[in-house]
Design a protein that fits this description.
Elements: H1 3-15, H2 18-25, H3 29-43, E1 48-49, E2 56-57, H4 59-83, E3 90-97, H5 106-115, E4 119-126, H6 128-136, E5 142-148, E6 158-166, E7 168-172, H7 183-186, E8 190-193, H8 199-210, E9 216-220, H9 224-232, E10 238-240, H10 242-246, E11 254-257, E12 265-272, H11 280-299
Parallel strand pairs: 3-4, 3-5, 8-9
Antiparallel strand pairs: 1-2, 5-12, 6-12, 7-10, 7-11
Helix pairs in contact: 1-2, 1-3, 1-4, 2-3, 5-11
């Protein structure tokens, strides 16, 4: 057993296939397969379930992975400390939720490029459910996600709640509504919302279900500007975080609806794997810039 065998095994688990692991390690597929076989021979048991797609570790493989990951992280930290003066380098994969708006990811990217020029940044804007799945499958190093109040992230990840944000009901400026309405009156309206998989949509649907009220989706569409344009045309009501609404060029055609008995909120969590190692400063950079972004947008 040696480090290069462990590295090949961990890479296959992280990528879900020998093909992707070989590309990431700049090796042939046969070389990666041979290294994993060497490790399995040394331990005397199979470490991968080769019948699943993506390839998953066996029970023994998962235990091996949990031991190997911090070992390899420590080795990489040692290399970084000696070769780059401790500066983070290599790939850093992180994600941000669509609920914060597509442009929210710009601030962390700019900070990372300035503070850590040796990092190769891979940034993604996706639904929080997708980001959680990618963290679990180890195809992301860190992510900011939106989770409804009262729900906690998976215990397998390091989690920090960095904020709580309300959700606002949005209507066309020309739509006739009383200054303040109750939730039951919302059941008479149709909605322009994100497709299934969006946490804010799920929160709204659950609220209707719990009250035994009908819920009507007029249009499912990805992208807040598209949704806002449809809301402005009177297609239905929308749902978004205030900072997304206030930063929209369509905001003058829209208005916020005051609902007396419905104040949905989502917690904003920063999540990363337990073996983040040399990438910890990059994670802190993402954390700090997102907090600054939320604070700045909250003052607008």
């Amino acid at each position: 057993m040696n480090l290069i065998d462990l590295e090949a095994f961990v890479s296959v688990v992280d990528h879900g296939s020998v093909v992707a692991a070989a590309a990431g390690l700049h090796l042939t597929q046969s070389a990666v397969t041979r290294r994993i076989q060497n490790l399995e021979d040394a331990l005397g048991m199979p470490l991968l379930d080769r019948q699943t797609r993506p390839m998953r570790p066996t029970r023994a493989g998962q235990e091996t992975y949990e031991f190997a990951k911090p070992v390899l992280s420590s080795v990489n930290d040692l290399k970084t400390g000696i070769m780059n003066g401790g500066e983070p380098s290599g790939n850093f994969r992180f994600g941000m939720p669509r609920g914060l708006g597509d442009l929210a990811i710009g601030s962390p990217i700019r900070c990372l490029r300035t503070e850590f020029p040796k990092l190769q940044i891979q940034a993604f804007v996706q639904w929080s459910t997708v980001l959680l799945e990618r963290l679990a499958s180890r195809t992301l190093d860190a992510a900011v996600v939106l989770i409804p109040e009262g729900v906690v992230p998976p215990s397998s990840l390091v989690a920090e709640c960095i904020g709580t944000e309300p959700l606002s009901i949005v209507a066309a400026k020309t739509k006739r509504l009383p200054p303040s309405i109750n939730f039951e009156e919302l059941s008479e309206e149709s909605w322009v919302l994100n497709p299934h998989g969006c946490g804010s949509r799920q929160l709204l649907e659950v609220a209707f279900l719990q009250r035994g009220l009908p819920f009507v989706s007029a249009v499912e569409a990805e992208g807040y500007e598209l949704q806002f344009s449809l809301v402005a045309e009177g297609v239905g009501l929308g749902l978004a975080m205030p900072q997304v609404f206030h930063s929209s060029p369509l905001r003058k055609q829209l208005k916020l609806v005051d609902v007396k008995d419905f104040t949905p909120r989502q917690n904003i969590w920063l999540l990363h794997s337990r073996h983040i190692g040399r990438l910890a400063p990059a994670v802190r950079c993402v954390r700090d810039t997102v907090i600054q972004y939320l604070h700045y947008k909250g003052r607008q």
